[in-house]
Amino acid sequence: MKNKFICIVMILILTINVSGCHFTQYSELRHQEFKNADIFFDHLKEEDIDSLINMFSDDIRDSCDLEDEWKEFFDVIDGSIESYGSIMVTYSEQFIDDGKITRCLLNVVFYNVTTDEGSEYDTLEYNNYVVHSDQDQLGLCVVRLEDDDEFLCTIGRSNY
Known about the structure:
Layout: H1 2-46, H2 49-54, H3 58-63, H4 66-76, E1 81-83, E2 86-97, E3 100-115, E4 120-131, E5 139-147, E6 150-156
Antiparallel strand pairs: 1-3, 2-3, 3-4, 4-5, 5-6
């Protein structure tokens, strides 16, 4: 009975250690993505297309005409982007091996995005591979502007 109890305790400790590594790593990735989101939003406010393009993965930069897509995006927006009401960072895709995240796609959503013309858009979101075994996949893959349950503009493409 004592050996069985010790075995159960050991399994619990191992499970907690593995889960803890994953949680700590995800927490750090999420924290860093909030910083990246601030940089992304600053580039949007400045309409800095080159900096926005540089945030995308090599794969997306090579396969999409991001400059034209960003120009179209800024044509769709009524005025210049100024602010957002709130932000949420969650994961859309996550693979774990031996307690470590081996692939992670984070979804960042800005709610109630407003412009200097007084327009408000429901959401502006992007997906960002922050961990991936293929280095060409690291970075943004898609940006979407949505209002009234309709996508107004999409930049890049979804990789999942």
